[in-house]
Amino acid sequence: VMTRNIELAVVAGDGIGIEVVEQGLAVLDAALATTDVTVTTTPFNLGAQRWHATGETLTDDDLAAIRTHDAILLGAIGDPSVPSGVLERGLLLKLRFALDHYVNLRPGKLYPGVKSPLAEPGEIDFVVVREGTEGPYVGNGGAIRVGTPHEVANEVSVNTAFGVERVVRDAFARAQARPRKHLTLVHKHNVLVHAGHLWRRTVEAVNADFPDVTSDYLHVDAATIFLTTNPSRFDVIVTDNLFGDILTDQAAAITGGIGLAASANINPDRTAPSMFEPVHGSAPDIAGQGKADPTATVLSVAMMLDHLGLPVEAARVEAAVAADLVERGGRVRSTTEVGTALADRVRG
Ligand code: NAI
Ligand code: MG
């Protein structure tokens, strides 16, 4: 019998990150219990605590050690005691850029039993393919005369033909594998003419290689309207780093909230480990109280299983979540109660 071991880097991080990752790992164990796949976890102490203790965010040694793993499970990073931007840029974005996570996948799915704030949500089942390594998030910019009336502050959006084509190609492939086979490009090419037309031309050109996929285009402002009035119209959305960040929070809101929203930072070429994390942050307002919903992390674990070539186990985890959500109603359960219920369902 061929056995296989998954080397998993675990960055639980701060606040509720620690609580939800514990439950995510319990469900992972349950999913693999009946297989010949084992997991070895390596915890990495990264985040606010480490920064306070050593002033470090992510060292070259940390990065080299993380690279040797098959995947990364991340909880959440951030604390009010750390100045805004230090951990986001120095840790989270650094991981995504260094490990070439150019596909940031965020499903927007309204599960049966989950209440949407929309009066008539209809069926919601789309996925946002957000570019992860370019756009305005690369840190190409700077400021001079800071704090004076003559301050100049620039953030440059970087869009390369190479970077746009690879993520657009990935998005078309995902659209082709879905029943509706539809792709929507979201940008703002009437104003951001340089980047916008590169994206538009790239989608048109790559579409020729995926003739069975239909595509359309929306300006980002119109996309926010349709996400509210007719989210069923979306199947695969491809967009840049900033628009994707914003649209996926809206997507989380209309599909039942931040406690359910999963994400994957994927390196499709597999030259470095991909990273799986809930969309939410460290929630300092409820941290340490056992109130955090671990479901988003568990769904991120399902995405990880899928990426690691274990689609049957991924489907079992997602089915366990779906079944739990149907029965959940308005009941208040602790982090551990939800995690245990999901792990029990996965075990069957
Ligand atoms: P947040 O997502 O941590 O919290 C927003 C609200 O949602 C809070 O009221 C929180 O209690 C609630 N919430 C979040 N996750 C929940 C869960 N699983 N179950 C139940 N309720 C949940 O966003 P916020 O407050 O803006 O940021 C807090 C810290 O997290 C900041 O330091 C921020 O920079 C960081 N952050 C980190 C992210 C990451 O690690 N990827 C993503 C977003 C924020
Ligand atoms: Mg965000």
UniProtKB/TrEMBL annotation:
GO terms for biological process: L-leucine biosynthetic process. NAD(+) binds at G281, S282, A283, P284, D285, I286, A287, G288, Q289, G290, K291, A292, D293. InterPro entries: ICDH/IPMDH, IsoCit/isopropylmalate_DH_CS, IsoPropMal-DH-like_dom, LeuB_actb. Keywords: Amino-acid biosynthesis, Branched-chain amino acid biosynthesis, Cytoplasm, Leucine biosynthesis, Magnesium, Manganese, Metal-binding, NAD, Oxidoreductase. It catalyses: (2R,3S)-3-isopropylmalate + NAD(+) = 4-methyl-2-oxopentanoate + CO2 + NADH. Residues 5-342 form the Isopropylmalate dehydrogenase-like domain. Binds 1 Mg(2+) or Mn(2+) ion per subunit. Pfam families: Iso_dh (PF00180). Its main location: cytoplasm. It is found in: Cytoplasm. Mg(2+) binds at D221, D245, D249. One of its GO terms (cellular component) is cytoplasm. Its cofactor is Mg(2+); Mn(2+). One of its GO terms (molecular function) is magnesium ion binding. Its EC number is 1.1.1.85. SUPFAM superfamilies: Isocitrate/Isopropylmalate dehydrogenase-like. The record marks Y137, K188 as: Important for catalysis. Homodimer. Catalyzes the oxidation of 3-carboxy-2-hydroxy-4-methylpentanoate (3-isopropylmalate) to 3-carboxy-4-methyl-2-oxopentanoate. The product decarboxylates to 4-methyl-2 oxopentanoate. This is 3-isopropylmalate dehydrogenase. It comes from Sanguibacter gelidistatuariae.
